[in-house]
Amino acid sequence: MKAARLYAPQILKIEEVEVPEVNDEEVLIENKVALTCGTDLKMYKRGHPYAKLPLTIGHEFAGVIVKVGSKVKNFKEGDRVVAVNSAPCNICFYCKRGKQNLCEKIEEDMIGFTTEGAYAQYVKVPAKIVKQNMHIIPEHVSFEEAAILEPLACVVHGNQLLNLSIKDDVAIIGAGPIGLLHLQLIKAEGCKAIVIDLFKDRLKVAEELGADATINASEVDAINEVKKLTNGRGVDVAIEAVGLPETWRNAVALTRKGGETLLFGGCKPGELVEFDASHIHYGELTIKGAFHHTPLAVEKALKLIASKTIKIDKMISCKMNLNDIEKALRLMAEGKAVKVAIIP
After folding, report:
1. Helix, strand or coil for residue 55?
2. Alpha carbon of 338 to those of 45, 128, 150, 171: distances in Å?
3. Residue 115, C-beta contacts closer than 8 angstroms, at least 6 positions apart
4. Nearest C-alpha neighbor of 168 from the set 107, 98, 235
């Protein structure tokens, strides 16, 4: 089969590889679509702490089961399914304390990170993912819509960490896929959304998805503009969805006294960020990090997709063949595409 394998940062090769073999508790999926992802772009550009290279990357996908292990229950050949990239062990220190997203064994069998990923014609789904985080796609949901499940589950988890109220002012830094998913969730909760980005095309998509205001940070001072929109106070909640020290600082600066900052985008390992300590201390800010997903967040994300609460069509900028995966990643890096649907 054909697969896109990453050997080192910016060394990605399209190769012919063997179709994966599955054991008694695994399934093999014929991949119908894989979506590009900001994490894949970061991995391509600079590597990733979890990635075990060389590796077939990609982890947002949906397809049809073509082989089922003899011990697999509830699934059969021909089922249309979607799976996320990992599942918790449910027995470690963090799992027992209700933090399955922080599972000590989350790296084991992580599709597209420690096991072969979804930029390929076939994907093997490991046993614990089959048991916990693989689902039948509802008949009225397309493969492209279903494939957004993993990032949406992460966003759902982040959203669950916040204390949002109707009519809250929320600033989202970053109008990439994650920022646009956050946008749709907070609008569904009745909040006012201010979206900040550097690219006009992405801000246009944010407007189409319901943003109440957009700010092009390449043209104006985003912090000043947000203050103007909030009577000089700042927002009730700021969500950082980029993963850079500068945008982390800005997210805290945008947050009003007594407000919440969600640091969702992941910076490079080892990077340090400086904040205004007086604003955090005297303003009684609540600052939270958010990482990954839980099985419950995955279930909720699938319900949001099935109910059409989340609009996926405006987020998929175009479709490309697997041979064009590097071109697709470049389009994302240049802000010319939100997501690209890769057809294996």
Report:
1. strand
2. 17, 31, 16, 19
3. 109, 124, 126
4. 235
Each residue of 91-137: pLDDT tens digit? 999 999 999 999 999 999 999 999 999 999 999 999 999 999 999 99
CA dihedral for 229, 235, 239, 240, sign (positive or negative): positive
Of 298, 296, 194, 284, which Cα lies nearest the Cα of 239? 194
| CATH T-level fold of 162-289 | Rossmann fold (3.40.50)
Rounded to 5 degrees, what are φ and ψ at 114? -115, -10
Judged by DSSP in three states, 295 sits in: helix
To the question of pTM greater than 0.70 for the whole model, the response is yes
CA trace torsion 199, 179, 236, 304 (10° rounding): 140
Fold of 2-153+293-343: Quinone Oxidoreductase; Chain A, domain 1 (3.90.180)
150, 33 Cβ separation under 8 angstroms: no
Unique residue bearing structure tokens 């970061």: 42
